[in-house]
Amino acid sequence: MRQFNFKSIKFYSKILIYLGISFLIYSLFIKNKSLSLIGLSILFSGFVLYSIDSKEQIKSIFQISNPFKINLLSFLVGSIPFGIFFLNWLGFSLYSFLYFFIFIFSIFISILLLFLPQKTNLLYQEKAVFFHPLKNASFYSIVLAVLFFIFYIQLYWYPDYLKNISLLFNPLSQWIRNKPADQWFLYGTIYTIGIVYWGIKFIQKHKHQVYQKWRTLSLIFSQVVFAYFIPSIMEAFSLNSSLDQNDVYLGYFNANPINSWPLNYDFFSGSHLEAYVQKTYQPYALSYFIWGLVLFLVLTPVFTYFVGKRWYCSWLCSCGGLAETVGDSFRHLSDKTFKSWKIERIVIHTVLLFVSIMTIAVLLSYFSGKNVTIVYWTVNKTTVFISISLILILMVYFFYFLYKKSTRSIFILMIGLIITILLFLFIAYFSGNSQVFIVKSSFLKKSYGFLIGAIFSGILGVGLYPILGSRFWCRFGCPMASYMGIFQRFFSRFQITVNGNQCISCGNCSVYCEQGIDVRSYAQQGLSFTRSSCVGCGMCATVCPRGVLKLENVRKKETK
Amino acid sequence: MHVLIIGNGVAGASAAVELRKKSNCTITLLSDEHPYFFSRTALMYVYMGQLLFEHTEVFERDFWKKNTISLLQAQLTQINFKEQFIILHNGEKINYDKLVLATGSIPKKLNIDGEHFKGVQYLYSKQDLDKLEQNSKNVKEAIVVGGGLIGVELCEMLLSRGIEVHFFIKEKYFWNSVLPDTDASFVQNYLKQIPRLHLHNNQVVNEIIGDENGNLKGIKTKKGDFFSCQLLGVCIGVEPNISCIKNTELKTNRGILVNEFLETSIDNVYAIGDCAELIFPEKNRKSIEAIWYSAKNMGICVSSTLAGPKNMYEQGIWTNSAKFFELEFQCVGLVKSTLDDMENEFVWKNEKKNQLLHFIFEKDSTKFLAVNAIGLRIRQKTFEKWIKEETTIIEVLKNLRLALFDSEFSKDISKEVFRLFSKIIFHTNEAI
Ligand SMILES: Cc1cc2nc3c(=O)[nH]c(=O)nc-3n(C[C@H](O)[C@H](O)[C@H](O)COP(=O)(O)OP(=O)(O)OC[C@H]3O[C@@H](n4cnc5c(N)ncnc54)[C@H](O)[C@@H]3O)c2cc1C
Ligand code: SF4
Ligand code: SF4
Do B161 and A67 touch (CB under 8 A)? Predict the structure, then answer.
């Protein structure tokens, strides 16, 4: 009998998947439901076919002992909200209150299922990331990434396509914000649900690791309270993004108390500055502004000095929160080569420079020819210019004071950055019109928002999770990370301590470092280390089978 | 000068890398297993899907080229010590000025009937792992023989693929040949709770039974019981791999005999790692220590001798570590399976959290000697310092907090340990 060729199946199934995707995209554009249903079924059959590569595999699907068969119950329950989400996305109108209830209820049940006493089999399955079709940068991952891309593009530029899913969350939006849901509310909600669900899953997976437990609880808390509820409640009480009696829009500022500049690049934008001094928003808006200044200028350096940048990156930040929970299954995909380390250092500092220059341009052009009174304080272009210069010069002094020979390269980098920013500041001040650096400041801001805000941090940052790992944005792009990274490397107590010569060079630590740090190269030499990109997630210490690593805050002696 | 190193395990590779830091001689690293140095200890994670094999390679591949260390994948079959050259399996001849033998170990055989059946195998090399991948397809029940570290790793590997595992242990408790009864029974109790793992203590496999096609069917124990299985993992220890120098003038016993400079009986020939046997081991230490750390230290040590001047190998303070499923084990200093006359012990344990600390100290001087830690991470350097400085056990326990290495936010157990200790002294009135 002729042997059946499984290779050709692979080929045809791939064609089916591509066909399904094109149908889907096309149907989205012409808003045709039946076409999208056809696309979906083609895609699905393609997937099923693709996953069959041998006769044994077909057989093993029906074997009870197959550990890689997904826990059926939780899978079924978990697929209900996915299904509702998907069908709405495709244009079906499944957004009545009943669907919303089923959506939330099945997520709740699915979370409860996580707490069932788990068979160890499941843990093995969780850990075997390199056998999982989605977690292994395989063909499936590309498909997943494409879905992410489509979602983000629609979110930023074609929100109409997300209308049905937004409507699904209308009851929730009405309840907590007193307003109908829009695409940003939808985004915030699924973002939060993602962090809560996968966060709990993460804690279950590492429940014996106390550090992981507290860290993840903090991330969940921060996302739910700071990033989700506080801003929503502010809106509900007409303290942000609201209208006055005559239906005039009063302005918007980002009310998330831990979303600090430079991650929140809009913090100093004209529209936000106006919202901070908006009378109806007081005293909250102005307090938020002052808090933001203190957070960025005082608290960030101080906290980073005591515990490293992890207090932010892997305890509070929303981007970090998503990476640590939803992205946990992809952390091992980050590139560990020396080359990517080089690229990382150039790119991340360039973004920091970009955001600083952009902010200066926006600030100076906003204040040029204008006096703004904030309580007792009158601010104009010159005051802004002088304050920024003072801050920068103080920073130079500060760094010089703490300068240690061992960190010479980062010292030079730091001074170089500050001097460049100062230079731009002078140009901006003396060029004297809204066109501070040849181009308009609004153009600078728009390009930053488009290139960095939307494409880098959103579409690529999250979209590439399944291919380049979960912290692609945090590692290569985030200006906040780069700002804190300089402090961490330069004068922080944080370090990863290596336990004598206990390392067996197994490589687990390096593989599971989402920041692509080759931890093993330090561990096997018995060298404790601090890398500026380390977000202190502690995974290297958690996965190390020999207890070699520990995250610590220690007073470092003068090194070398 | 051409330094030829046979075997690119941790011993051989460390020797090459460290030698390159000290000298610009020609270095060739030869192995028949895999062209790049990889971590043997990580093989289990590859099978379990936690790592890819390429992740076990310790250095980036272009590292070797950058450091001009030539790699060669070939098998050495013969050495001519007089004219200083070796012959490879393909007949090629390579000259050397200095030869370093780092051929590692081979797994011990059961030496009983039926060891040739398909499905009977060992776990040591990359090839063994590939074989396991083949052999464990469609297996429902497996038997692992040998109550040691590689055995328990193999159990975990097979369980991760949903295979029912029977673990045959000759001793009363798992790893009892090394651990004292308290610790071994503690680990044994932990292992008992692992689903689908069946422990068979005090059992010896007597015969392997297969069918007429040469496939494995099961085993028979000494007591005469039959256990069916489709895979039999034999992990009863390792012995030095000296097959390539058998019947030469090089002096061997169980391993290749070396002096304290790691020199063999022939000039310009050295032996390091698992295959080396020390003629004069230090007090309380073994002449062959087949562990990662010793192999690495020997490699680093011999690199100095090769670059000159001669460097003496010191075994130093014994330390080892392991992991049984989720339970971590670490020791500093030697906790013997039975106490010496001179020694006294103090054990603290928390059965609920699977934590145990086992301290050994001298009876008269109360000098701290060694510690076993299970389910807890400890600071190796701190304990080493205490051993070197002959700190008393009371001082050690008083300052225990400094020597704990568990992650931040873990419960600090040092006070609890000290309280228990004070209670015991108070009740027994021992001269402490
Ligand atoms: C599964 C497993 C888990 C382990 N876990 C631990 C652990 O957790 N902790 C610990 O301390 N130790 C552990 N060990 C032991 C540790 O791996 C060894 O002690 C260590 O690898 C020895 O290193 P080596 O360089 O001496 O020899 P090896 O690593 O064995 O290297 C020898 C190399 O030489 C090659 N070779 C031999 N003969 C020839 C020839 N004639 N021609 C060409 N090449 C040849 C071999 O193919 C091999 O590649 C473990 C071992 C195994 C098998
Ligand atoms: S080095 Fe460790 S703590 Fe730092 S980012 Fe990598 S895995 Fe996390
Ligand atoms: S995980 Fe631990 S033992 Fe493995 S390479 Fe990293 S530090 Fe070493």
Answer: yes
In this prediction, residue A281 has a pLDDT band, given cuts at 50, 70 and 90, of confident
Residue A55: is its pLDDT beyond 90? no
Contacts of B231 in chain A (CB under 8 A): none
Helix or strand holding residue B362 (H, E): strand B355-362
Residue B361's identity, in one-letter code, is F
Asked if residue B113 belongs to a domain, the reply is no
> Three-state SS for A452?
helix
Q: Which of B51, B162, B292 sits opposite A121 (nearest CB)?
A: B162
Residue finishing a domain among A189, A204, A237: A237
Residue that terminates a domain, selected from B307, B336, B367: B307
Determine the longest span between alpha carbons in chain B, in angstroms: 73
User: Range of B251's domain?
Assistant: 2-106+239-307
* A509 CA to centre of ligand 2 in angstroms: 8
Find the A544 Cα to ligand 3 centroid distance in Å: 5
CB nearest B55 (choices: A119, A210, A507)? A507
B408: Cα separation from own chain's centroid? 29
Task: Pick from A505, A511, A543 the residue to mutate for probing ligand 3's pocket: most ligand atoms within 8 Å of its CB.
Answer: A505
Same domain for A200 and A70, yes or no, is yes
Domain interval for residue A529: 492-553
If phi > 0 it is left, if psi is from -120 to 50 it is alpha, else beta; for residue B80 that is beta
Interface mutation vs chain B, best among A131, A328, A501, A543, most B CBs within 10 Å: A501
Hey, of B10, B377, B385, B388, which one would you mutate to test binding to chain A, going by the most A CBs within 10 A of its CB?
B377
Residues A459-490: pLDDT tens digits? 888 999 999 999 999 999 999 999 999 889 88
Does residue A434 register a pLDDT over 60? no
- Torsion angle in degrees (nearest 10) through CA of B173, B174, B177, B182: -60
* CATH number of the domain enclosing B326: 3.30.390.30
Tell whether A51 and A188 lie within a shared domain: no
ipTM computed for the complex: 0.94
Specify whether A4 is located in the same domain as A74: no
- A413 within some domain: no
Contact residues, chain A, for B45 at CB < 8 Å? 506-508
Whether residues A197 and A79 fall in one domain:
yes
Residue nearest to atom 1 of ligand 2 (CA): A534
- Tell me whether residues B48 and A499 touch, CB distance under 8 A: no
Q: Verify that A12 and A36 share a domain, yes or no.
A: yes
Average pLDDT over residues A353-363: 87
Q: Are B230 and B216 in contact (CB under 8 A)?
A: yes
Instruction: Give the mean model confidence (pLDDT) for residues A175-191.
Output: 90
Tell me, yes or no, whether B147 and B190 share the same domain: yes
Going along A459-548, which residue ranges are E strands? Answer: 494-498
In a domain, A78, yes or no: yes
Domain count, chain A: 3
* pTM across the whole model: 0.91
Residues 6+ apart with CB under 8 A from B219: B143, B205, B206, B207, B208, B209, B226, B227, B229, B232
- Find the A64 Cα to ligand 2 centroid distance in Å: 38
One domain for residues A103 and A233: yes
Q: Which residues of A297-333 are buried (b: 16+ CB within 10 A; e: fewer)?
A: eeebbebbbebbbbbbbbbbbbbbbbbbbbbbbbbbb
Give ligand 2 pocket residues (Cβ under 6 A): A 496, 513, 515, 517, 519, 534-540, 551
Q: Would you place residue B296 in the very low, low, confident or very high pLDDT band (cuts 50, 70, 90)?
A: very high
